[in-house]
Amino acid sequence: MGVDIEDFVVINALGELDDPNAPASAAASGQLAPTSAQLTINERALADAHASGVTAINVTLGYTLGDFPPYRHTLDEIRTWDAIIAARPGDLMRIGTAADIAEAKRSGRIGIIYGFQNAAAVEDRPERVAEFARLGVRVVQLTYNQANRIGDGSMAPGNRGLTPLGREVVEALNERRVMVDLSHSGERTCLEAARVSAQPVSINHTGCRALVDLPRNKTDEELRLVASRGGFVGVYFMPFVNASGHATAADVVEHIAHAVDVCGEDHVGIGTDGAITAIDDLDAYRERLAEQVARRRAAGASAAGERADTLPFVADLRGVDQFRELARLLERRGYSSTRIEKILGLNFLNYAKAVWGA
After folding, report:
1. Is the pTM of this model over 0.85?
2. Has residue 274 got a pLDDT over 60?
3. Strand 92-94 with 137-141, pairing
């Protein structure tokens, strides 16, 4: 019969809502840091999201990298997403609580979770966390690949760990019940943040370094610690799950299986780091990708394993059937419907209840 995901809460712990084939989005894809205003959330993107079965997506907004003024750019991005959601009330709703995720499922809308992939916009003012939380931000990733004032990213050579300011920021995030996301962080920053956080923390999109030794993947020690404190680990659909960079759906399944072995089945989910709508012309996209990879390297923002000859997604795990296909592959591996439901979204929902409240 196969697993039917229609009744599941499907949550992408890090993803995109966009039609990458639209002219504006295609043009932006070669840039160093496309903005939320350059997304194309058209009828195709919305129809594909609905058809995929996804309930909620943690979308990246705010400053991640580039020459933008971090704080002002972040406020602009939040306003952009507020306008996107306000213009499509029948399709989208902003997620502030775990109950909102249930409401998105009940009402047939796509829940949008506001998340940062870099806390640089806090600068040296931890009190800004309260402002961002008031504006709807529910997830804050402490660092991107580089170092910032809070800690070191996965590509920072110093591996300094969490700074004193970083500890203040984690405390402020705990106080405002905002998720502390340790994706992209360096190993010491990840371990120290997980230990000092008063609430469970997450690694919303990663792979397992025990399988592929790349900095963007997490060690078993990091995975185990996050899970042991009630946290969440999302496995991505990214090239880093295969040492060659040419990742397949089977590789994603192996990383999920390893994470389940290390963390337990109650702490693992998905954070694809990609869109639902598939790119139609991959040859044209590869040309734009080469431009972006070159710009990211020049800016010192790329991660080991990013190359122009690899795709930043898994070619056979994309499009509207990506979550159903993953469910089929997990079932083929012997996973029960209950375990698959946890991985596709229930584990993130339970983590959200623990951090945000019911």
Report:
1. yes
2. yes
3. unpaired
